[in-house]
Structures are given as structure tokens and as C-alpha cells.
């Protein structure tokens, strides 16, 4: 059988919808593989989306697809939506289309790194990405509800490791990141951090411990889910300088919800009702300055059906990082040299909080991810099981 790789076109959308539905049914969580308008927008933006497909010749039927979302401003890209039709899976088309896409993106676009997530219900997608040059850098625990709550793995591919010469290593890190940095250093085969670790307690904010039960006090948080309105407001705030995007940067996620309690801080989030997944993208102020109100917000957000919350924070922002850990957001993945801030590549850490019982019983991971799971479980147990007090 002969195959040809080329770019997807708008006229291919019906065939692409059929391909993704045949592989995932109604459980595929991403709009870019299931929403006609989102797909049309992506295919109409060649500088922001490179979408290769494999066609079976001579008919030209699409039998494989991969989506590369691109942010040329921050020089970062995301690989998602890798799918191969069942009848041609023995031909190795997934690896072929990924390698083709990586070469095109790194050669023809100003992209310095690509990241991808892999499911952990089997080893195949992890090992396929690892075999194409992606590196294991962490996990997203209980992140997506596809058929059950699935843990995803984070992998990153760099155009060239020479960019790490333009990276600023953190001057100080809390001990809670020691094992995460050790695992990442091992997988990148370079030492990412040489200084001493500090105690996060130095940066804990007084009065911000869990105070949901504080004599009946509550904050009237509003959760405004209005995608078009929120996206416009977010853009206005970015343009006016009310938001510093790099402080909490989450690429390829547009906010569809804004959270406010009438104070000066507004938090922009992306909430997927389909799989109960929420990303905190940015805010108009420093989250750690919310103090105890932040924990009350997390407590009430569960009523919306949010079961998993995630955000990415620059590791240099120790007060914010330690404040989030104090509020049970635990580091689960690291993205070294993610983007440039003030002309220098900076490291970012993924912090996650799951609202449902942590369950790794059915996952299957490559050895490259085992250390990340071990360190997350150890930290989760310490925060949730070992820190309670007993009065005598």
C-alpha cells in the first residue's frame, strides 16, 4: 500500500471528523478534533497550526493525522491529535507522521520546543513519542476524563539542546522540587540545578492555611462561563498590561471562564465541562496575595464540576510556588527552558490538584516516567495523609 503525507485542507474536515470519531467515539476531549469551526480556524491559520495527514493512494483517503499547534511569539509548539485508522496501524504511520511534522516545524518555523501528552492506559503512545526524540518530563495525575480519569504523561522535544546555553538556571529552589529536577536532569542528561535547596516554609503566607471552615465566613465568588466575552476581556487585559502573561503561562489554552469575588483580582481559566478539567491561565494580580480567599475559591469551584485544576508557574517565583503547594497544588512535571522571559529561557513547573481520589492502579508507564510518579505519590501522601494533627 502506498502513502503520501501532505497538509490537511479545509475540504478535509469531514474526513478528519470521521477519522477521530472512528478512533475515539464520543470520548475525545479536544475540540480541535471534534468541532468543525475550531478545525476550520486552525486550518485557516498556517503560521499557528501545521496539520499533516497521511493519505492512502491512489484514492487519497486520509488514514492518519497529527496536529502541531504553534506559538511563534514564544517559540513553542504542541503536538496533539495523533490518530491512525485501524486498518493501517501495522505500517508505522504514527511515528512517520510525527517525525515528518517535527522536521517541518523545526526547519521552517521559529519553534524551539514542542510538547505532547501521552495516555498511560498503555505504553504504546509513550514509547512512540520517546522513539521520535521526545523526553519524559512529568505527569498530569487524574487529568482527563476520557472513559475514566486518566493520568497523562508530559513529553518535550527540543530543536537543539544548545538553547540551554541561553537558559537561566534558578538561583534558589525549594526542597519539594529536588526529585523533580533530579528526574528531569537524568532524562535530559544534563545537570539543571547546582545550588542548595531551601525550605518552602520560608515563603509560606501567614493565615493562608486551609480555612474553609472559619466560623461560617464565605466569599461570594462568581464563575462567569462566557467564552466569547471572557476571551475578549482577557485580550483587553493583556493589551492594557493588567496581566503579565509569563507569570503563569499556559500555551494553547484560551480562557472561557473568569473567576472573581468582587476584589481587584480576576482569575482567567479554561474549564472543560466534558472532562471536568480546569486550567488557571492568568490573573490580574498575584495569586498568593489572595491569602485564605484562594482556598475558599478552590473549595467552591468543585460545585461547578471541576475535579482537576492545573497551572504552570515560573520556578523563580518562590512565593507563588510555595503558596500554591501550601494549598495542595503539587508539582508533577517540569518544563525546563520553556519560554524566554526578559530575553532568557526560564524553567516552568506544572502544579496540579486533583479533587477525586488519586488512583494509579490501572496505569502503564515507561520506566522514564516512574520517578515522576514516585515523587508525586510521596508528596501527595505527605500533604494529605501524614500532615494531620492528633490532639490528646
Give the low-pLDDT segments: 205-217
Report the major sheet.
Answer: 8 strands, mixed
Using only CA atoms, what is the Rg? 21 Å
The residue-averaged pLDDT reads 88
In the CATH hierarchy, the architecture of the largest domain is 3-Layer(aba) Sandwich
Say which CATH homologous superfamily of the largest domain is assigned: Gcn5-related N-acetyltransferase (GNAT)
Q: What gross morphology would you assign?
A: globular
Q: List the helices and strands in order.
A: EHHEEEEHEHEEEHEEHEEEHEHEEH
CATH topology of the largest domain: Aminopeptidase
Give the class from helix and strand content and strand pairing: alpha+beta
Q: How many separate helices?
A: 9
Number of domains: 2
Strands, total number: 17
Helix coverage percent: 25-40%
Q: At the first level of CATH, what is the class of the largest domain?
A: Alpha Beta
Distance between the termini: 75 Å
Proportion in β-strands:
25-35%
Amino acid at each position: 500500500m502506498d502513502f503520501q503525507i501532505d497538509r490537511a485542507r479545509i475540504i478535509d474536515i469531514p474526513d478528519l471528523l470521521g477519522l477521530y470519531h472512528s478512533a475515539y467515539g464520543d470520548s475525545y476531549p479536544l475540540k480541535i478534533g471534534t468541532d468543525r469551526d475550531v478545525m476550520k480556524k486552525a486550518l485557516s491559520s498556517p503560521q499557528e497550526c501545521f496539520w499533516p495527514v497521511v493519505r492512502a493512494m491512489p484514492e487519497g483517503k486520509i488514514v492518519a493525522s497529527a496536529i502541531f499547534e504553534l506559538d511563534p511569539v514564544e517559540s513553542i509548539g504542541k503536538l496533539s491529535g495523533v490518530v491512525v485508522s485501524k486498518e493501517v496501524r501495522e505500517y508505522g504511520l504514527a511515528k512517520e507522521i510525527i517525525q515528518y511534522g517535527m522536521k517541518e516545524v523545526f526547519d521552517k518555523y521559529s519553534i524551539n520546543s514542542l510538547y505532547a501528552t501521552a495516555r498511560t492506559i498503555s505504553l504504546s503512545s509513550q514509547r512512540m513519542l520517546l522513539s521520535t526524540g521526545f523526553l519524559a518530563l512529568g505527569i498530569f495525575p487524574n487529568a482527563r476524563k476520557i472513559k475514566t480519569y486518566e493520568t497523562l504523561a508530559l513529553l518535550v522535544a527540543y530543536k537543539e539542546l544548545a538553547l540551554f546555553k541561553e537558559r537561566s538556571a534558578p538561583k534558589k529552589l525549594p526542597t519539594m522540587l529536588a526529585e523533580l529536577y533530579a528526574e528531569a536532569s537524568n532524562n535530559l542528561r544534563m545537570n539543571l540545578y547546582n545550588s542548595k535547596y531551601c525550605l518552602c516554609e520560608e515563603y509560606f503566607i501567614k493565615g493562608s492555611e486551609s480555612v474553609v471552615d472559619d466560623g461560617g465566613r464565605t466569599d461570594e465568588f462568581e464563575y462567569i462561563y462566557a467564552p466569547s466575552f471572557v476571551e475578549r476581556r482577557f485580550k483587553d487585559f493583556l493589551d492594557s498590561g493588567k496581566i503579565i502573561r509569563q507569570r503563569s503561562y499556559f500555551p494553547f489554552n484560551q480562557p472561557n471562564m473568569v473567576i472573581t469575588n468582587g476584589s481587584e483580582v480576576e482569575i482567567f481559566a479554561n474549564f472543560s465541562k466534558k472532562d471536568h478539567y480546569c486550567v488557571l491561565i492568568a490573573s490580574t494580580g498575584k495569586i498568593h496575595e489572595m491569602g485564605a480567599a484562594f482556598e475558599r475559591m478552590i473549595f467552591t469551584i468543585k460545585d461547578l464540576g471541576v475535579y482537576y485544576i492545573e497551572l504552570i508557574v515560573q520556578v523563580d517565583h518562590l512565593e507563588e510556588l510555595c503558596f500554591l503547594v501550601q494549598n495542595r497544588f503539587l508539582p508533577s512535571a517540569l518544563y525546563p527552558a520553556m519560554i524566554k522571559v526578559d530575553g532568557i529561557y526560564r524553567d516552568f513547573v506544572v502544579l496540579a490538584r486533583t479533587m477525586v481520589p488519586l488512583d494509579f492502579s490501572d496505569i502503564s508507564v515507561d520506566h522514564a516516567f516512574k520517578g515522576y510518579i514516585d515523587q508525586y505519590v510521596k508528596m501527595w501522601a505527605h500533604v494529605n495523609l501524614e500532615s494531620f494533627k492528633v490532639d490528646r
